[in-house]
Design a protein that fits this description.
Distance between the termini: 20 Å
Strand content: under 5%
Number of strands: 2
CATH topology: Glycosyltransferase
Length: 343
């Protein structure tokens, strides 16, 4: 997910409606996980939270691991919030949210909206399976167009698999399989794969050097998992399990002893997660443990959830994020003028 930058302003701005904060979400929150105001960019969103998906099926493909219904407050397409249709993560998340609404019995118009989002993605998909972003990413991570996003590839694949399962239309299955191709290719070969300790890592932002964004890698892995399980694709299942092993082996790198890290990119200062992303990491690890258990997932989840119980840790995380944004500003002009920028 975007490092609280320009992409996220479209996806996450606005207050969550009560209809999209279902009561059952409170029941799935594990001990130590709290609903708080988000630090940084999300400080104005007083109750924003992405909980575990209520219809998650550890053995099949039903609801998405994260409840995306907050991303689809409107069942009309195109969604008003997605006025910039090149931001493919937003399109995929809108579709996943609408599909989740349909599963919850909120009407056939929700399924129609999810299908429309999926068809839009197919219409923009390149022959190599990519969705190309044609606008430079001017802050946080050095990217020039055209660039691919591993998170977008994975989330789009997850949406397409669900539409194929529901409609039986092969066009969705074919596009889902194509969407995985960039996840197996290195950045210099037109893909989004990096190596972390010699293991494959899907890059949300395929930078040089690699950025290793934690939440984006997990979302990308779920696309591999859904194609493998939903379409019976053995190659996707194998790639997912390799990615899960890499994630489990590397989680310690994202733990600074009192909070989780957003990424491992060599910024002037460490990029700690905002409270929003720290909470998201905790929920993602809970979902990942349900989908492909590794002892590292639950141990890390409990440790990170424990970090949030300390007011000192929360204040320190906020101060660290504020310092990070002073040195790595969101403002594009300032970001380009900083003497240490790589842009």
């Amino acid at each position: 997910m975007d490092a609280e930058g320009s992409l996220t302003r479209i996806y996450y701005a606005g207050r969550v409606g009560a209809a999209h904060r279902p009561a059952e979400n409170a029941a799935v929150r594990a001990p130590g996980e709290s609903r708080r105001s988000s630090a940084g960019f999300f400080s104005s969103v007083k109750s924003f939270f992405l909980p575990l998906g209520p219809a998650l099926d550890p053995n099949g493909v039903a609801g998405y691991p994260i409840d995306m219904r907050v991303k689809s407050r409107s069942a009309s397409w195109p969604a008003p919030a997605l006025h910039h249709m090149q931001l493919y993560v937003g399109v995929a998340q809108y579709g996943l949210g609408a599909y989740e609404q349909w599963l919850a019995g909120e009407g056939e118009e929700c399924l129609a909206a999810a299908r429309a989002a999926a068809m839009h993605l197919i219409s923009r998909q390149e022959p190599d399976g990519s969705w190309l972003h044609h606008k430079a990413f001017m802050h946080t991570f050095p990217l020039v167009p055209p660039w691919r996003c591993g998170m977008a590839q994975g989330e789009a694949a997850s949406l397409l698999v669900r539409l194929h399962k529901t409609t039986g239309e092969e066009v969705f299955a074919e596009a889902a399989v194509r969407a995985l191709a960039p996840l197996s290719l290195a950045r210099e070969d037109g893909g989004v794969r990096a190596l972390l300790d010699g293991r494959p890592w899907p890059e949300e932002y395929p930078t040089d050097p690699p950025s290793y964004v934690l939440n984006g890698a997990i979302f990308a892995l779920w696309g591999l998992r859904d194609v493998g399980v939903g379409l019976g694709d053995a190659d996707a299942t194998r790639a997912f399990e390799e990615g899960v092993d890499a994630l489990a082996a590397s989680l310690h790198r994202f733990d600074n002893g009192w909070w989780s890290l957003y990424s491992l990119f060599p910024h002037p200062v460490t990029c700690v997660a905002s409270s929003f992303y720290h909470d998201l990491h905790i929920t993602q690890l809970r979902a990942m443990d349900m989908l492909s258990t590794r002892p590292e997932f639950e141990a890390t989840r409990l440790r990170w959830a424990g970090y949030t119980n300390s007011s000192w840790n929360r204040r320190r995380a906020f101060a660290s994020k504020a310092m990070f944004r002073m040195l790595v500003p969101r403002n594009r002009l300032l970001a380009r003028r900083m003497p240490w920028t790589r842009l």
